[in-house]
Design a protein that fits this description.
Blueprint (H helix, E strand, L loop, with lengths): L1 E8 L8 H9 L8 E6 L3 E7 L12 E2 L5 E9 L2 H10 L9 H12 L9 E9 L4 E6 L8 E5 L2 E5 L2 H4 L11 H10 L12 E3 L4 E6 L2 E6 L14 H17 L8 E4 L4 H13 L5 E7 L7 H11 L2 E7 L1 H15 L8 H13 L4 E3 L4 H4 L4 H13 L10 H5 L1 H4 L3 H12 L13 H7 L31 H18 L1 H9 L4 E3 L5 H9 L6 E2 L2 E2 L1 H7 L5 H4 L11 H5 L5 H6 L2 H7 L4 H12 L6 H22 L1 H11 L6 E4 L5
Parallel strand pairs: 2-20, 13-14, 13-16, 14-15, 16-17
Antiparallel strand pairs: 1-3, 1-9, 2-3, 4-5, 5-6, 6-7, 7-11, 8-9, 8-10, 11-12, 18-19
Helix pairs in contact: 2-3, 6-7, 6-19, 6-20, 9-10, 9-26, 10-18, 12-17, 17-18, 24-25
Length: 658
Amino acid sequence: MCGITGVINLKEPKPIPEGMVMEMLALIQHRGPDEFGIYLDDHAGLGSARLSIIDLSGGQQPISNEDGTLWIVFNGEIFNYLELRPVLEQRGHRFSTHSDTEVILHLYEEYGADCLRYLNGQFAIAIWDRGHKKAFFARDRLGIRPFFYTIQNQTLYFGSEIKSLLAPPGVTAQISPTSLAQVLTYWSVQTPGTIFEGIYELPPAHWMIVDNGEITIQRYWQMDFSTESNRQSDIDWQEEFEDLLINATLIRLRADVPVGAYLSGGLDSSTTTALIRKHVQTRLETYSIAFSDPLFDESPYQRKMAEHLGTQHHIVYCTHADIGRTLPQVIWHTETPILRTAPVPMFMLSRLVHTDGFKVVVTGEGADEFLAGYDIFKEMMVRRFWARDPQSTLRPMLLKKLYPDISRLNQSGWAYLNAFFRKGLSQTEDPWYSHQIRWSNTSRLARFLVHPPAGFTPHPSPEILPEDFSTWDPLGQAQYLEITTFLSPYLLSSQGDRVAMANSVEGRFPFLDYRLVEFCNRLPPHLKLYGLLEKYLLRRVAAPLLPPEIWRRVKRPYRAPIQKSFFQPSPPDYVRELLSPSVIQQSGLFHPGMVAQLVRKAESSAELSEVEEMGLVGILSTQLVHTLFVQSFRRHNAAIASDRPLKRIINQKEGNHE
């Protein structure tokens, strides 16, 4: 695992300042503090900040092929590299290291862009072909690892994080109104955009080639939810699923350093941790978050699982004050506004993992998306059932089972929610049907914007939909939308890669193994959502491994407190300053009066609604992004870059291939 960065001259060759690449690396040294390397010629510069996990002594980057015509920097892990290497050796390739990085390079040398279909892993790749003056970039199928780029003055800059792109002279950050509206609707900016004008993210499952100044971007993999309901029995599906999950988990233990595990107390991480414990008889360290606020705390289930598995368990305790105090650090690493505080405890958790000397953790993300674990999938199924008899008074009652809090509402409260869920009820042919209520609800936050983008509507571009989208069953359609708009742009980014790598910790995700993903996408819907019971197939596999109170648990979304974290008993100084009318006016993004009204309510004893809480975090985090990256990046840049000097720079200039 590493942070990568670099420079490509698109037209004329010209010297690339070594100091500039060093400064770009310095800004992402948290991603890879173990070793640093640079390659330079008149057309390209590549930089790597390495977190050494595989081939600790020999895997320094950049790495070249035998004759020095190809050079690579790589962020991620290829879990099947041990199987790929002997195949390449049989075809005449010679290796100088034992790293997965070098396997990618020779695979590219053999197959070109088609090499990506052989890779099982999580990756962002940059390869420079110095003979043909061509650059090849690629990102993993599900967007686990990030890759950003921008073009300024006939020069392409790229990196694992946006802050490294802001180091070169002339590259600046300006918040995009359209991207901000997307955050306030979908929780995140939709690729290829970022929150900043003119800075882009390579979408998941895409490669990019830069050849003689021409840029080509192409998709190499696509999700397919065409089901195979008549292929085999439920038992056959279960056995195949279990075999795939075991293999996906075990190959993610490949490392030359110890591997820990996150253990949230939920079904997903409990299952993967139990599989590790069952198949690998070694000491296992597990980690979880406990909240001082009982409304969010799941630590009893975490302790139950740790005792059941006999792991050495570690807990980070998170208070309201911790969240309020830590948010600015988190936004420095997310580099984008967020609508939830959930990334903050994840940042604290990875900091504990790092403090304990671990670089790698196995975690359970992805099961909710690919096995239909979220309430939004159940809600969609209930509404479709209701839509077949819109006048029914019994069918909407299923929502009370889905959301138990609804059952405690008085008649007027239930009438309001009944009308809320009825919106667009009969529009079942709408491709956005499953998510339209959510997006319409959060898009109301756009009223805070001074300049809402003209023509913006609360649904993505139809271009994101595959040609056969309309032939999929409704659950598959809903899953595709959730994965495309939420999984990579938010969950695997702001709540995943960015807060973990901020503390030099790599997360590994068995449920995101592309083989398991493709298998789950073919499943009959009832094996994912059985009535209103989510992740049915996973529960069947987990039952022999976990205590009943764990595998039978209904999904509880991971969330963190908001209002009390920033306003009770009193706001931290930065909150008071950034949300003050004068500073809101100065940033020019939000209406000062409307923000002041929200702040007054947050400071009072009145409880904010869910949308109001999201608005509060969205506005505050946007103000932090504006302050850190738009107003004063150069000052922060210098402070961060000088905070911890690079341990070592390996200069690999043209003609030096030792």
